[in-house]
Amino acid sequence: MIGNGWKEALEGLPYILQGTWVTLAVVFGALALGLVLGLVLAVGHVYGKPAVRRGIGLYVWFFRGIPLLVLLFLFYFGILGALKLELSPFVVAIIVLGLISSAYQSQIIRGAIKSLPEGQMKAARAIGMSDRQAIVFTILPQALRLAIPGWSNEYTVILKDSAVTYALGVAELMTRAHHVAARTYQHFWLYILVGIIFMVLTFCGTRAMAMIEKKVAIKGYSR
Amino acid sequence: MTADEPILVVQDLRKRFAEKEILRGISLQLHRGDIKVLIGPSGAGKSTLLHCINLLLPADDGRILLHGRDVTGFRKRRVYEYRQKVGMIFQDFNLFDHLTALRNVMIGLVRVKKIPKNEARRRALRELERVGLAEHADQYPAELSGGQKQRVSIARALAMEPEVMLLDEPTSSLDPELTGEVLTVIQDLAAAGMTMMMATHQFDFAESLANEIIFMEDGAIVEKGTPQKMLYAAENLRTREFCARIHGYWENPER
Predict the structure, then answer these.
(1) Helices (H), B117-175
(2) CATH number at residue A145
(3) Taking CA atoms, what residue in A is nearest to B140?
(4) Which of B63, B55, B105 lies closest to B80 in space, CA to CA?
(5) Closest residue to B83, CB basis, from A126, A218, A222
(6) Interface check A125 vs B, CB under 8 A
(7) Do B98 and A137 touch (CB under 8 A)?
(8) CA-based angle B132:B134:B140, to the nearest 5?
(9) Which domains, from first to last, does chain B contain?
(10) Tens of pLDDT along B103-121?
(11) Structural domain total, chain A
(12) Could you say which of B98, B113, B160 has the minimum Cβ distance to residue A142?
């Protein structure tokens, strides 16, 4: 196992690294989809009528409660088949991870909204804003700032979850490492290698988030 | 509209939370230039009354009339328009923490009144000047003292050009040495003829400015009258007791 195997593994690196873009596209696609849906869900969860809140609660339960692999297979083999739709595994990966992420992100944002002082909404209403305006112009700009540490975590989770899309054959990092391993039998070095790539991506992402957090911090404000 | 027609009329306003009656039939009138001060122990319903008048809380019963029009049935758009005419100042300021002082004042002009940014900036600066904070325009709330925050919140309300201002204990979360600057601003407003209703425990202030003091307890108005009468010759025993206690406190804060 240990010997010159690592050299052979390294030869596969360029091929594997091309998967970085696929992995990042899946991750950022899912995070973006999750953010848009998560925002709407969070606002609905906090300010919606009881029926809306219950509906969102069920949605969150569904996507947090079912394992990723089950959801991937359910969508790809089950739902697409039933609907006679054809989508690439890449697109399905983004949609499924995005829906799951929206459930988690809605709870991150909901927590952030809830942690704002109640008076913010009241003050916005008192100068004649509609609830919608109050949420868009005063609540969300503050809540989204508070949500950044939670997002940072969500990024690392989605990043690692993206490896599971290997099961659909999405040509991301894990899939490519597996291809090379199947050919060279250097499983040890290849999985070490792909692990390191994931660690680097995690590091870069959390650092970027920390920088954004610092950049958008409100002067003199600490909570 | 004739001169003696009230701007704002509250008729038999009632509000309950669960089993507790917070407002038990409040009636009052505000004429142009009136300064009415609400006093009473905490839990008397002063704050709830002011919130109900601004439609921040729905009243269960009773009417609120602005220039003779009942606003209690107002929804959406008409509520938003009404609130622009009736400014509200809160005990804990409630400035938007993510915006500078200037942007706090501008946001209502830009987003609600849809005034172009440059014009809004000019008007917001003018309001900040009015409360003596033009040089703090670019500071964030967290960089301001409590007194400054409250003055920004007054500027924010004034920018909407309200006809009436409701002030809910505007100085009670401030350190004593900071109340003066806020009271001075309110004094200036009074001098400029602003119609106001204010809940406060600042008796000296009430005495020098108010044309009527209203004593509330347990969700009802117990007695109202001129400051002279209310503070020194109240008819109701409860009013006298309350005033004596507060007066005593302010004269002998040690006690």
Answers:
(1) 117-130, 146-159
(2) 1.10.3720.10
(3) A219
(4) B55
(5) A126
(6) yes
(7) no
(8) 105
(9) 8-251 (3.40.50.300)
(10) 999 999 999 999 999 999 9
(11) 1
(12) B98
